[in-house]
Design goal:
About 30% of the residues lie in helices and about 25% in strands. The protein is an alpha/beta fold and about 375 residues long. Strands 3, 5, 6, 10, 11, 18 and 19 form a seven-stranded mixed beta sheet that branches. Helix 3 crosses helix 4 (about 200-210), helix 3 packs across helix 9 (about 320-335) and helix 9 packs across helix 10 (about 335-345). The longest helix is centred in the middle third of the chain and has 20 residues, at about 150-170. It is globular and about 60 Å long. The two termini are about 15 Å apart. It binds zinc ion (2 copies). One zinc ion binds near residues 94 and 112.
Length: about 375
């Protein structure tokens, strides 16, 4: 069967032939891949910026955003059967018994850094026909999301952040009641999303569906498929080529939440200056090497302290965020069926995966499909 692999030694990316895997552990499941999303992480791995093969291998099969169908289960598998749809999580725990996060099943908060990640770090990924893994790392997907499940993993970035935001909001002003329905938790609050890539747009959808007055701020000029999508979810798109951050503050009032999905430090620091009273700033983008940014740490410190602000960095996601993402995806599909469809530009065979990684744009989220 085919797999898309990166060879960091000779710096090659190519389609290779690999043997089908076999069940090894009693709680293993065999997955037939249906859809695998391509994202910036894959592009960076294929540009040899990072990405580590499993020990002893000279290559890494990439792919970490997947929707799969269970086709075989080991004798100890209890909650899954052939035909079930699942999204496999990405990170696997470190072996250190003192790592409280991993011991608790929350390897997304691993404190040793010795975790592995399928398709990224020391474990092969999902850009291949068949994959075997333990049942505990699978998140079941309802059949109604058969066409959209591939969006789960990129949406978990926002969901993990929002779970923490709502926890914070329950414990500090505006004292969100834990009984508040999911679609009213952001009521009366405004949220600013930086960036209109898949992570930004999915984050905007999660914020809009939670009731936030949502703005998306990015470079591109409207109209475009991305800016149209922002309008269809009832959010407001603003181009940074037309309006400054200070204009946003004037228009939005107190900016309660900023969701950064660009990974550009200059832009993020400029945005931080308009974060409002008691505001929470979520950082999800990982900046590459950039020119030195001149900033004024004293005034930022003053602002963070005097306005009771929170800076929250977040990476990867646990099972709870995957489950929350699936719940939100169902809401998206119910509320904005055409928008959810528009997120996936098309499905392409694995032979074309390299084109998707190295340039050809295919809608907002590029998807490689193994469906036949
Ligand atoms: Zn990704
Ligand atoms: Zn750990």
């Amino acid at each position: 069967m085919k797999a898309l692999a990166v060879f960091p030694g000779p710096r090659e990316v190519k389609l290779i032939e690999v043997d089908p895997p076999r069940l090894a552990e009693p709680d293993d499941v065999m997955l037939k891949m249906l859809d695998v999303g391509i994202c910036g992480t894959d592009k960076e791995i294929c540009s040899f910026e990072y990405g580590t093969p499993p020990p002893g291998d000279d290559h890494l099969v990439i792919g970490h955003e997947a929707l799969a169908e269970v086709v075989e289960v080991g004798p100890a598998v209890e909650g899954l059967k052939s035909g079930d749809l699942v999204v496999p999580t990405v990170r696997r725990p470190c072996p250190d018994p003192k790592c409280r996060a991993c011991v608790a099943g929350h390897q997304d908060f691993c404190s040793t850094g010795n975790f592995t990640e399928r398709g990224i770090k020391e474990a092969h990924g999902y850009l291949t026909s068949l994959v075997v893994d333990r049942e505990r790392y699978m998140v079941p997907v309802p059949p109604v999301l058969a066409d959209f499940g591939v969006l789960t993993e990129p949406l978990t970035i926002a969901e993990k952040a929002l779970m923490q935001v709502f926890w914070l909001m329950e414990h500090r002003p505006p004292w969100l009641s834990p009984d508040t329905p999911a679609d009213r938790r952001g009521e009366g609050l405004s949220a600013l999303v930086l960036g209109a890539g898949p992570v930004g747009l999915l984050g905007a959808m999660a914020l809009a569906v939670a009731g936030f007055n949502t703005y998306v701020y990015s470079r591109e000029l409207p109209p475009s498929p991305r800016t149209d999508l922002v309008a269809t979810i009832g959010a407001t798109y603003v181009s940074s080529q037309q309006r400054a951050f200070s204009d946003l503050r004037d228009e939005m009032g107190n900016i309660d939440l900023i969701y950064e999905a660009v990974g550009h430090s200059d832009f993020a620091v400029a945005a931080l200056r308009v974060l409002g009273q008691n505001g929470i700033f979520i950082l999800t983008g990982v900046p590459g090497m950039e020119a030195f940014v001149q900033s004024d740490p004293a005034s930022l410190m003053r602002q963070l302290v005097l306005k009771n602000q929170v800076l929250l960095g977040t990476v990867n996601a646990g099972r709870d965020a995957f489950a929350a993402a699936l719940e939100d995806l169902e809401r998206f599909v119910q509320r904005w069926p055409e928008t959810a469809t528009a997120l996936i530009g098309g499905r392409y065979p694995v032979d074309e995966a390299q084109d998707l990684i190295f340039g050809r744009s295919a809608g907002i989220k590029s998807v490689v499909s193994f469906r036949t």
